[in-house]
Structure formats: C-alpha cells, structure tokens
Amino acid sequence: MDILQWTALELAAAIKRKEVTVMDAAAAVLDSIESREGRYNCYITVDREGALKKAEDIQRKIDSGELTGPLAGVPMAIKDNMCTEGILTTCASKILGNFVPVFSSEAVLNLEKAGALMIGKTNMDEFAMGSTTETSAYGETKNPWDENRVPGGSSGGSAAAVAAQECFFALGSDTGGSIRQPASYCGVVGLKPTYGTVSRYGLIAYGSSLDQIGPISKDVADCAAILEAIASHDEKDSTSVARDTDFADALTEDVKGMKIGVPKDYFGEGLDGEVKEAVLKAAQVLRDKGAMVEEFDLSLAEYAIPAYYAIAAAEASSNLERFDGIKYGHRAQEYDGLHSMYKKSRSEGFGAEVKRRIMLGSFVLSSGYYDAYYLKALKVKALIKKAFDEAFSKYDLILGPVAPTTAPGLGESLADPIKMYLGDIYTISVNLAGLPAISVPCGIDSKGLPIGLQLIGDCFQEKKIIQAAYTYEKARGVFGTPTIENEEK
Amino acid sequence: MAKQYETVIGLEVHVELSTKTKIFCGCSTAFGGAPNTHTCPVCTGMPGSLPVLNKQVLEYAIAVGLATECAITQYSKFDRKNYFYPDNPQNYQISQLYLPICRNGKVEIETEVGSKTIGIHEIHMEEDAGKLIHDEWEECSLVDYNRSGVPLIEIVSEPDMRSAQEVIAYLEKLRLTLQYLGVSDCKLQEGSMRADVNLSVREAGAKEFGTRTEMKNLNSFRAIKRAVENERERQIDLLEAGDEIIQETRRWDDNKGESYAMRSKEDAQDYRYFPDPDLVPIQVSDEWIVQIKERQPEMRAEKITRYKKEYDIPEYDIEIITSSKHMADIFEKTTVLCGQPKKAANWLMVETLRLLKENGMEPEDIRFSPENLAKLIGLTEEKVINSSVAKEVFEIMFDTNIDPQLYIEEKGLKTVNDEDALRRTIEAVIGANPQSVEDYRSGKEKAIGYLVGQTMKAMHGKAEPGMVNKLLKELL
Predict the structure, then answer these.
(1) Helix H segments across B47-128?
(2) Which is it for the CA torsion A247, A249, A254, A256, positive or negative?
(3) Which of B80, B84, B132, B142 should we substitute to test contact with A (largest number of A Cβ atoms within 10 Å)?
(4) What DSSP letter does each residue of A40-95 carry, written as one string?
C-alpha cells in the first residue's frame, strides 16, 4: 500500500474508513519530501513540526465527527505567495525573506476549515513573475519528469510537489497562466477559476485585476473538491463574488451535445508539432464521446501578450511599492537617509525579473505614456473579453493547448525573456477576460514530457469545464506519475 | 500711478469625515489612542490585505456634493496615487483622480458688496496618511498608523476668490455646511479641516491668470488670512521688481509670518495615477441619491426660516445661534426640554458668548449639555434659585457641565421660601438700619434698595428678591 499514489479524495476516504490515519499520511508526505527535496526543491518552507501536531488535531476532529468533508486529513502544499499565519511567507523573494504574516489567506483558511493539513509553502517565480520558477531567490525547482527541465511557473513548486508526490494537492495562483502552464509541464491538473470565485484576501498581489487562486491536483475529481472548498464570497475582498460552488456535482461522464470551439489561431506558427497532435487527439476523444467540436476564429491572441504585460506590470509596479524595508521585510544594512534606504533595500531585495516588470509598469503608468500604453492595453482587454463573449454565444467550451511546447530546459527561458513572455500566448487572454480554464494532461512527447490540454469556459461555467475534463480524463485512462517511474528504475 | 493688481485664489480643502471607522477597514477613527492601536493589516499595508470601501464615507461625500449643488458621478472609481513616504504604508494613497464622486458645484458667500458664487470644481474621497514622529534623541523616526485610512474628502474650488475675506467667507460657509450635514467637526486646529491656498496675481483687467503658488500648513483662519495677504504682496513685489513667479509649493510659517518654498513644479513627482484594481467601480443609483437628499438634515437657511416662524426671539439672536450647528442643537434641545426658547436664547447670547470670548473658545467647544441648561432655566423659573445664584451656577456648568440641581443642593444655594424666617430677618434689618427706614418713610423710595440688599446679604443671597421687596414694603 503506497498511500502517496492515492488521490486526495481516495486518501480522505481511507482516513474516514480508518484504514490510515492523518498522522500516517503526514508522515508519508514528510518522508517523501525528505528523500526528494534535494532533487526537486519544490518547497521554500516545510512546517514539519506544525504539520505533525496539526495532524493529530485533525484526526481527533475526524474521529469525533466534527470534520466530515472530502478533504479532511489530506496533506497539502500552499504557494508561498499566500499568507499563512505564523509561517514564513516569502513570495520567493529576498525582500520578504523574514516575513511572517499575522493572518492567513482566506483560501488557506477555507481549506483548513475543510480539514486539509498544510505541510509547507512551495517555491515559485519571485512574486509570481516568470514562467519557469527559476526567478525564485531560493533556487529553481526542477521538473520531476526530467530534472534538467523547468517545472513551469510561476506555481512551479506547487505543480512539481503534486507530481513528485510531495503532497496530495497544492494551491497555486494564476495571473497569466501560472497554474495551468506548470500543471501542463508537470503532468497534473490545474484550474484557474473565474475572477472573483476565490478570495484574494491574503494573496500577495502581483496583478490584482488578473490574479486568481486555484487548485493543482492529481485528477479532475480532486480539483473539483478543492475548488469547492476554496471558493467563497469574502467581504474582505471587494472583487469577490457570490456564486454557485457545487463543482463536484459536475463530475459526470457526459459531453453529449456539448459544443466545443477550437480556435484556429491557437494551432498556428510556434506550436510544437507533438503538442498540436496530442491536443487535437484529445479533441477527437471528446468528439467521440458525443461533443460537437469545430474550428473557429478567435483572433486577437497576438494582442493579448503586450496588453497583459502592460496591465500586469503596471499593477505590479504599484502593488510592490509597499516592500520598502520600513515595516517588514529586508532593509539594507547601510544607507544614508530615507531615499537611500528605499533604493538600497529594494535594489538588494528584488531580483532581475521583478525589477524589469516594476520598471516596465512604472513606465506605462508615467505621465505622457499612460494613454498610449496603459489605457490602450485596457481597451485591448475589453476587446478580448468581447471576442470571448462572441465565442461563448456559440460554444460551451474552447479547447486548445496550454503552452506552445513542453517543459524547456533549465536556463533556456531566462536567457530570452521575450520568448518566455510569448510562451504565455494561450493562457494569458483567459486572465484578461477573467474566464475559468483547466489544464489536463493529454499526452507525453518523444522526450518523455507531459503535454497539457486546456479547456476554457465562459465566466462562472467551471462546471462545464469540470464535466468535459472529467469525461476526457476517464476516456484517456490513467496518466503516469514521474517519480515512481524514475525511482523504480 | 502704481499698477493695480487682482488676486486670484482657489482652495483645496481637506476635510476629515466623522465616520466611526476608517475608509477601507473596520478600525476606529477615534483620536488619542496609543500609537498603532487603531490599526489592522489593511491600514498598515500588510502584504495580502485588501481595501473594502466604507459605504458611510461614500454617503457623506455624496451628501456634501448635494449640499454644494454638485453633479454626482454615478459611475465613479478610486485611483492609486503612487509616492514613497513612510507615513503611507502601501506607498500609494487611494484617492480619486479620473472619476471623482462630485463635480461642478457651487456655494454662495456673503461679501461686503453682496453675495457671490464660488464654484466647486470637484469633491473626491481619499484616505489619510499616518503620522511620523521624529525622535531627535535616538536619531530615528517612528510612525503611527492610527490616522492611516481615516476618510477624507478634498473639496477643490474654482479660482473664484479675490481676497482673504472671500477665502474666509468661503471656508466659513463650507464649515457650516459640513457641520450642519453632520459629516465632520471641521476643526482647523486639530487638522480635521485643512486648506491649501492656490494664489496668483495679475494686473487688474488682465484676462490670463498669473503663475500660481500653492501654500500649505495653514492651521487657522487667521493663518490663512495672513498667508493670503503675505503671498499676494510677495508676488506683487516680485512682479514689480521684474522677476518671475515660480510655480511652486510653499510652506507657511505662522510664527515668522512668512512662507518658504518646499518644491517647484520641476521637482513635482509623477504620481502614476491609475484605477485601483482592488476596489470595484462605485455605482450610485438615482434612488440612492434621492434617499440621501431626503435624509439630508435641515441646513442653516432652513433653520433660520423655521426659528423666525417658531420662536419669538430677535433675528440677531437667530443669526448668532445658527452660526454654529452645535449651538443651534443646544438651543433646540434646551427649548424642547424646558419650553422656554427666550430663556434658552438668552443664556446662549449673553452668558455663553461672554464666557466663550473670555476663554478664547469656539461655539463648537461648548461642553454643557442641553439637559443641564434646561434644568437651570427650570430652577430659576420655579424660583428655587435667584438669578445671581443662577449665573454663578452657570459659570461652573460652563466649565464642567455639572448638574445644577445636584450642585445647588450640595452647596445649599436654594432660595429660602420660609416667609417666617424671611420676616424675622427683615425685622432685624429694619431694626439695624433706622436711618434708611426713616428715609423711606419720608418718601425716599430708593432707600428700600439698600434694605433689600442688606436682607439678601443676611440671607446669603438665597432669598427671592421679589418676595423680599413685598415683605419689606409690608413691614415698613
């Protein structure tokens, strides 16, 4: 019995049946972390003692019937940009290297209420800026499928931790694809919910109008259960919305009559042949299951990247101003007066990619450029939303790849940031339009790397996404896990 | 002949709204807490915290807009004003630039040459900053975030004022309006109302405005008046000397009676304003505007009209009493409690104004309660105390808001109504003052005054003068 191979729901059910205890599960995960972290570096902080203590507490509550939910007792990992009370929260940045929050994010609290057990905080691109988890100040995370490759990003630590069985599920955050792309690279499921579904309270903001927390899991059923637990209308977040959250009800194998649009422009130049083939094959699976699948023109995709980088960087340049060495975080040792303290603390505390985006964002907001860049980007954003609205008047879902390629090698992407930005082409417009989308593993390329299928829904149509993804997953069959293969060789 | 100059003045007035909680979190706005005790993750800019608009702030801002005849922006937004300073925990201030909540209003002021309209360019909502305390001993600065996130509105006038008198009249009018609305106590000294003065001069008759300066740190009407006059002269002197006026922000030093330059336009920061993505756009419905209008309390003009109709008191008294919302409130409550508008007005007009003046206080500083004033009036009317005792008690009440009933009992100040005791005292006074008795009996009516005084003295002031008079005449 290797409990690490179980899904979150399977584990919780076994705990409920008293086949294993929460302490067993926690110990198994901590052992796995012990033996694998040296290779993968999925975590920035592992709360070993806290987790073991909490495990007993949760077990007691399960035994007393206080905790009955489908995730009770399941060890989880949290991306290090979500505040956790009393536990270091760094955003993978040196500037928050000593930051211990006084409160926990709403999403984390919701999972704790559901009885999930937090094991630690996962690695990420610094302040979620990057697509590889290489911009972390705490070393890069390696892809469990191939240690010479990146896990994707920015939620690379979360995706790799799920793939490497160093937790049963994880939370990521998605501003331009930061859940879906690493999920795709690591062969796990990742879902970015409709903007406003999960409270952003406690999520350290990158691009506030685009950020959304979501699950990274082993399969679609886990994904639905986690989403159900974290979705809530939170009065502390003005952008949070009241909506239906019965996502697990959508776990039915049925896509008959579902209309799925495949944007032609998602399959053009730049898309890797093997990725294309795998994604189209997945479309065929859904067609065989009774869905109506057809190609259409979505257009505007090419404008999404510049618009995204203008908006996200603008918001980030302002969001990151609070990291000044005054109230918390890194302060330079030597400085001469207030401005020198600001300059030195921030110069020392932020990494190159963060500085690049702060400068870009400050530039597009500066007087004289605001209209030409920031306002124009907002107009593009509105046009993209309109294009999706039109598409969703015809289709229930949009199907496409998550990323143009499978996981690149370590060091390849940062050498050419523009190329890295272009890699976000299929994920970014979803954030600009506030839509929900899932990444589901749909194949393995000739290099042995996972390929992801992306299903995009209209706002608040997560249930359609989950239903189609679940149907596809059942038809596809079991998708391998990298660690087991590697370790048993 | 020397050139004639016209002064052109526009005002930016910051007003602290008297909501119980801050603009974007639930922390208290109360003054006087120990440093950083009225704070939370939101108003200290902790990572991951998010602002949520206090609806009361919006309602107050709209109420001010309606009272100043502004157009209410029904689709409004908050913007971030980005600048680094330690009193500003996020290093951006949440304010409104692109779509302020109120625009294009006006207020009427009274000047020496009749009434004049001052345009309101806009009113916007924003958050206050914290306070830096420089510790010179330790060579460091400390920051207190208790004021961080206290709601402010900024009322920006058009450059319609032409003199210090007009500036003061405009500020007085705004202050009264805000006080009547109950949205702010508007105390300049305490900083709950702050005015920045934009001033330029031009030759009389010129069409173009001159280069303006902005004056900050004006903490009283007197300082504003002096600063306006000083800056006008400074600019005229520069022009007369053939120098240019530099567009800059200046700081007024009221002790020295002069200003100095803080920063010029060239140094002006680029605040990189953009809509705050953490706050959703504000939608104000027609119905809500109507509701706020209906809930609007009686303003001064309406109060004056009503007082004239309801109370038989002099118009001059009405003007004075309504010139402070606080005083008008005391007047009305006292009147309701004791049913004596004339007496209530009298206490305010005579004793209260005298004591305010003597103590250098404003009507807003009145501490005695209407309940106690009504009691005092009642006690006097019922002749429980006489008027000189009443004045004595009132002075104490003015200082400490004592309950007059309890006070006079404690101090034994009640008028003696025991006729027999009074009669005995008067008989003794008559016996002791044969000359005055003789004078009175021989027709010198005035002599009775002396005898009344002697009787009051013997009674330790606690006799009712009318009764003393009556008994004296009887016994003589």
Answers:
(1) 55-67
(2) negative
(3) B84
(4) H--EEEE-HHHHHHHHHHHHHHHHTTS--STTTT-EEEEETTB-BTTB---TT-GG
Parallel/antiparallel/unpaired status of strands A75-79 and A259-263: unpaired
- Amino acid at residue number B402: I
A366 CA to chain B: closest CA distance, Å?
5
C-beta of residue B89 within 8 angstroms of C-beta of residue A327: yes
Measure the CA dihedral A130/A131/A135/A139, to 10°: 150
Asked if B139 is an interface residue toward chain A (Cβ–Cβ < 8 A), one would say no
The residue ranges of every structural domain in chain A are: 3-252+435-488
Supply the DSSP symbol for B82. E
CB contact under 8 A, A99 and B50: no
φ and ψ of B382, to 5 deg: -80, 5
> Three-state DSSP class for A260?
strand
Compute CA distances A152 → A21, A183, A408, B73, B388, whole Å. 33, 8, 8, 45, 89
Ordered DSSP codes for B257-310: TEEEEEEEGGG------EE-TTSPPEE--HHHHHHHHHHPPP-HHHHHHHHHHH
CA atoms of B476 and B463, how far apart (whole Å):
18
Domain range A3-252+435-488, CATH class: alpha beta
Amino acid (one-letter) located at A30: L
Q: Any idea where the domains of chain B sit in the sequence? A: 5-287, 298-411, 419-475
Contact A438, A466 (CB under 8 A): yes
Angle in degrees, CA B247, B250, B255, rounded to 5: 155
HSE of B136, CA atoms in CB hemisphere, 13 A? 0
Chain Cα centroid distance, residue B336: 24
Query: What tokens does B260 get?
Result: 């100095």
Each residue's pLDDT, cut to its tens digit, for chain A (489 residues) gives 689 999 999 999 999 999 999 999 999 999 999 999 999 999 999 999 999 999 999 999 999 999 999 999 999 999 999 999 999 999 999 999 999 999 999 999 999 999 999 999 999 999 999 999 999 999 999 999 999 999 999 999 999 999 999 999 999 999 999 999 999 999 999 999 999 999 999 999 999 999 999 999 999 999 999 999 999 999 999 999 999 999 999 999 999 999 999 999 899 888 999 999 999 999 999 999 999 999 999 987 778 999 999 999 999 999 999 999 999 999 999 999 999 999 999 999 999 999 999 999 999 999 999 999 999 999 999 999 999 999 999 999 999 999 999 999 999 988 887 888 888 999 999 999 999 999 999 999 999 999 999 999 999 999 999 999 999 999 999 998 885 444 543
Query: Do residue B274 and residue A314 have CB atoms under 8 angstroms apart?
Result: yes
B419-475 folds as Arc Repressor Mutant, subunit A (1.10.10)
CA distance B172 to B364: 13
Q: Does A285 touch chain B (CB under 8 A)?
A: no
B313's CB contacts (< 8 A; 6+ apart) are: B307, B341, B342, B345
Q: Let me know: does A88 contact A46? Beta carbons within 8 Å.
A: no
A223: Cα within 13 Å, side-chain hemisphere: 33
Instruction: Please give the distance of CA B241 from its chain centroid, rounded to a whole number.
Output: 41
> Of A45, A34, A47, whose CA–CA distance to A75 is shortest?
A47
Q: Is A178 a catalytic residue?
A: yes
Q: Is B469 helix (H, G, I), strand (E, B) or coil?
A: helix
User: Which residues are paired to B154 by β-bridges?
Assistant: B14, B124
Structural contact between residues A434 and A367, judged by C-beta atoms closer than 8 angstroms? no
Contacts of B68 (CB under 8 A, 6+ apart): B102, B105, B106, B107, B120, B123, B155, B174, B177
Cβ-nearest to A102 among B41, B51, B277: B41
Residue pointed to by tokens 């009556």: B470
d(CA B432, CA B426): 10
